[in-house]
Amino acid sequence: MIDFVPTQEQRMLVDTVRQFVRDEIVPLEHELGPDAGELAEADETRLTAKVQQMGLYAWDAPEEVGGPGLDVVTRTLLAIEMSQHRAGLYAPCYGVFGGAGLAQLYDASEELKERYLYPTLRGKLKGFFALTEPSGGSDPARAVRTKAVREGDHWTLNGTKMWISGVLGADYGIVVARTGSGRDGLTSFVVDSDTPGLTVRRVIPTLRKVALPTELSFDDVRVPDTQRLGGIGQGFALAAKRLEQQRVPYAAGCLGVAVVAHRLAVEYAKIRETFGKPLAEQQGIQWMLVDSELDIRTSRLLLLDAAAKVDRGEPARDAIALAKLAVTEAAARVVDRSMQIHGGMGVAVELPLERWYRELRIRRIGEGPNEVQRLIVARELLGDAARAGKAAE
What are the per-10-residue average pLDDT scores of the chain (393 residues)? Predict the structure, then answer.
């Protein structure tokens, strides 16, 4: 077992971020639309400068590339706090804390780090990650059909990517393409957004209104071999590493939203009266609130368990899968209960609940569908018995 009591430094950082969200972010949202995903330029500049003075810009990046070098448990605790506002699920603090950049670039050559990683961590460039295709995304070893063919000191890419977020306004992207067969036949490339032949075929409207996914077309896109990220055939390993690392903060953001939704439900239950008494005195409401409290507390423990295992260097694949699976589903239940307790107000755009309800539905698919997370845990539990069917495919 581990000690879940935060250190003094962790408490200080959590309190700092919590106050920042309460005093700087939430008041601005009163003037923004219900589905807003960006701040006014002046507000973004002002708050980014404030975060930089706090020493928390690029908060999710390791120290060796210019970040504060926080451990995963601390980053998880901060991710929970940063998401506790209306736009927090897909635009936590509207990006003023920066981020980790694209984690695959940590393994890039120094030339690529200078051109892409460091400017991204400073907020000067934006990037996207392109793995999923119309043929699928949960099984990249077989679903990726975008091909990269080497021609001297260049590669030519042809194919289509789909459901790619962060493309609009991006300066470059990391693109996974097929250079051989199977898992060892994928290679990653850094591709500038203005490269001839790379086009956004369409923007795909979804339940969320920010960070809309796109369909990308690669038509004889020429990329220098110096833009290759990692070795030939290492694309699958880089992609898997990135996705696994991202699942903990991805789930932590869901928990932050659930915390606020639960808080709103508790407060409303105290003041709303039905049948001559407050909702808080209705046993049915009490049990709903207890169920939400149970979902939140168990989610927090699963997240911190996964984060702590990563920090200790222990195998954590199943713990990460459990955390992503449990938290994304629990958060949806909490928001659903809060909407029910609020009645008609629960579905009004005046409250953020309906936005969270829509956006949380996507989280069970993003960063690896929950069915895949169940498969990961099952294979850890059952070993070879769970893999027997796969060998026959």
Answer: 80 97 97 95 96 92 88 95 97 90 84 94 92 84 92 97 94 96 92 98 93 95 96 86 81 97 98 91 96 98 94 93 97 98 96 97 93 94 73 35
- Smallest CA-to-CA distance from 328 within 294, 303, 291 is with 303
What pTM value is reported for the model?
Answer: 0.92
Separation CA 141–CA 32 (nearest Å): 42
Residue 108 DSSP one-character state: S
- Euclidean distance between CA atoms 128 and 120, whole angstroms: 11
Find out whether 102 and 174 touch, Cβ atoms under 8 Å. Answer: yes
Q: Please, how many CA atoms are within 13 Å of residue 110, restricted to the half-sphere of its CB? A: 1
Secondary structure, 3-state, 70-134: CCHHHHHHHHHHHCCCCCCCCCHHHHCCCCCCCHHHHHCCHHHHHHHHHHHHCCCCCEEEECCEC
The dihedral of CA 276, 280, 283, 288: what is its sign?
positive
Residues designated as active site? 367
Whether 159 contacts 140, CB under 8 Å: no
Which bin fits 102, alpha (ψ -120 to 50), beta or left (φ > 0)? beta
Do 239 and 188 touch, CB atoms closer than 8 A? yes
AA identity, residue 56: L
Question: Tokens 């009004």 belong to which residue?
Answer: 348
What is the token pair recorded at 54? 């706090």
C-alpha distances in angstroms, 94 versus 57, 119, 333, 338? 13, 19, 25, 24
Cβ atoms of 96 and 48 within 8 Å: the answer is yes
Taken in order of first residue, the domains within the chain and their CATH numbers are 8-102 (1.10.540), 123-229 (2.40.110.10), 237-388 (1.20.140.10)
What is each CA distance from 119 to 100, 171, 220, 370, 377, in whole angstroms?
12, 11, 28, 34, 37
Task: Give the integer Cα–Cα distance in Å for 148 and 191.
Answer: 12
> CB count, 10 Å around CB of 21?
20
Q: How crowded is residue 24: how many other Cβ atoms within 10 Å of its Cβ?
A: 18
Please list the residues that pair with 48 across neighbouring strands: none
